[in-house]
Amino acid sequence: MKLNFLSRVSRFFAAVSAAVILAGSLAQAGFAAAVPLFSFTAIKAGESVTVKGENFPKNTDFTVRMDVFGNLAVGGPIVGSVNSGSGTFEATFNIPSSLKNEKTLAMRMDSASGWYSYNWFTNQTSAPSPTPNPVGGGKPFIDVVAVDKNKAVTLQAGRFPANQTFTIRVGPFQDFFKKYVVTGTINSGSGGSFKFTVQLPAEVKDVEMITVRLDSNSGAYAFNAFKNVSSGTVVVNPTPTPSAKCEVSAATVPSHTMKPREDFDAVWTVKNNTGRTWEMQSVDYKFVSGTEMQKYGKAFDFKATVKSGESIKIVVDMLAPDKAGTYTANWAIVESGSTLCSLPITVVVK
After folding, report:
1. From residue 322, how far is each of 20, 125, 258, 316 by CA, in Å?
2. Looking at beta carbons, which pairs linking 137-141 to residues 24 or more positions away fall under 8 Å?
3. Could you give the CA distance from residue 50 to residue 41 in angstroms, rounded to a whole number?
4. Helix or strand or coil: residue 275?
5. What sign does the CA torsion over 222, 228, 232, 236 have?
6. Positive or negative torsion for Cα 335, 339, 343, 346
């Protein structure tokens, strides 16, 4: 049986593109199995975008539209069409001349049979920064386990990256970005799978369909939507199962587009949640993967001991790459070869 369910998500803090994905599917029980979505793999400002589609219904023709951000591209100018083939595809579409100078654009794919997917991007030349590789590979996801109408929803997370703090946003799916509210945060701890419950805010009382989205400062995200009808057993007073060894309370890099070879500092504020002291001699912060932008060395000792519950500010002197593009460097706090905390940063050079 075909699903008719809507989900959306936004990628942000990457300064290049942000994504909000809607996919129309609504099961009789109100829960989703898989939803069509697409992401941006390349952007040429004012010219074209290249996308990758996944989880699409097979051999289905989709009309592709673009418009200014804010109306989900419903009824927007048609920029082409695409057949979903096996359900996964890549395609490139030109940006209409009437939209080439707009800063943020919406893109929508819809079929005559009712399937659709929605996304948006910043009209800036780049290849989007890579999504952090979650445990087990693939994208993070959240499944709806149970609903207590107007009160709470229990969710099952899967393939989450470790040691990242996710903001929880809840709102009506029809105009999620105008009306969502932040209901709290959750730390993914050791990553992978865990179950948690989100209390529903008054803003979605008696709303028929509700969207839940989780996103982190590092660009990882997951999303789902559900019918506001009681079903299953909601976990009462849940505590997230993962046990975070540390918490990144702030990560700072220049928010502007940088010039080639521009000098900057990457700064992380990290809280020790291990229950024991981080000794200067045994705990380091080091470069792990991605683009090396640091000026000096790859690994550094802490400059002070950090007791459990205390925070430390980590600063790395860096230099932007000499060519235009989007660059990500993955750093980490490590102890005896074990990663305690991931410290990714992304910059855009133009």
Report:
1. 31, 16, 10, 18
2. 139/222, 140/214, 140/220, 140/221, 140/222, 141/222, 141/224
3. 6
4. coil
5. positive
6. positive
Q: Could you tell me which residues are beta bridge partners of residue 290?
A: 329
Q: What digits encode the pLDDT tens for the residues 233-269?
A: 887 654 444 445 677 766 777 767 889 999 999 988 8
For 24-73, the pLDDT digits (tens) are 333 333 333 346 778 888 889 999 999 988 878 889 999 999 998 766 78
pTM: 0.40
| Phi then psi dihedrals of residue 252, to 5 deg | -125, 125
Structure tokens at 24: 């129309």
Closest CA to 54 of 82, 10, 86, 14: 86
The burial class, CB within 10 Å (0-12 / 13-18 / 19+), for 22 is buried
Q: Is 73 left (phi over 0), alpha (psi -120 to 50) or beta?
A: left
> Options 2.40.10.220, 3.30.450.90, 2.60.40.230, 1.10.150.320; which CATH number does 141-227 get?
2.60.40.230
Residue located via tokens 């979505």: 37
Q: What are phi and psi of 63, to 5 degrees?
A: -85, 135
Q: Does domain 246-349 have CATH number 3.40.190.290?
A: no
- Tokens, residue 175: 């105009």
Task: Give the span between the Cα atoms of 252 and 266, in whole angstroms.
Answer: 6
DSSP 231: B
Tokens encoding 47:
């010219």
In 3D space, the residue among 141, 146, 147 whose CA is nearest the CA of residue 35 turns out to be 141
